[in-house]
Amino acid sequence: MSQVTEYIAVGRRKCAVARVRLVLGKGSFKVNDKELKDYFPSKALIKDIMQPIELTDSIKNFDIIARITGGGITGQAGALRLGISRAILKSSTSSRATLKKSGLLTRDSRKKERKKYGQRGARARFQFSKR
Questions:
Q1: CA distance 121 to 115
Q2: I need a surface site. Which of 1, 14, 79, 82 has the fewest CB within 10 A?
Q3: Strand partners, 12
């Protein structure tokens, strides 16, 4: 039986979809053919994305290649984090407890609520005047 050299997973958040490939390697990180720090300018987002990798200590084992479409920068970061967590889970099932305890395997299902007719926004109403 041959050993699997890559693990593929999908992560979603709001309207963003991240397709993640974990390939055995030295620890390089590409997002849409750019380096991670070039694609995500915020250090907070990068820290958020790296959380599953740091928890499972798998930074040196894999090269991460991600394709992200849709959504904004924060939604894309959340989708990438979930995709990485799911791919790490496929690579080693022993890391499940660590990832689950940190809440990294849970899909954040919150989306923007649609605007309703007769209102200013999703829940905000037009100003009401009695007289």
A1: 5
A2: 1
A3: 17
13/109 Cα distance (integer angstroms) = 7
User: What's phi and psi for 22, nearest 5 deg?
Assistant: -100, 115
Element (H, E) at 65: strand 62-69
Q: Which tokens in the block code for residue 49?
A: 């994305």
| 44 three-class SS | helix
| Tens-place pLDDT, residues 16-69 | 999 999 999 888 999 999 999 999 999 999 999 999 999 988 878 889 999 999
Q: CA-based Rg of the chain, rounded to a whole angstrom?
A: 19
88: exposed, middle or buried (Cβ count in 10 Å: 0-12, 13-18, 19+)? buried
pLDDT category of residue 131 using cuts at 50, 70 and 90: confident
Sign of dihedral through CA atoms 71, 75, 79, 81?
A: positive
**For residue range 59-101, what is the model confidence (pLDDT) as tens digits?**
788 899 999 999 999 999 999 999 999 999 998 888 899 999 9
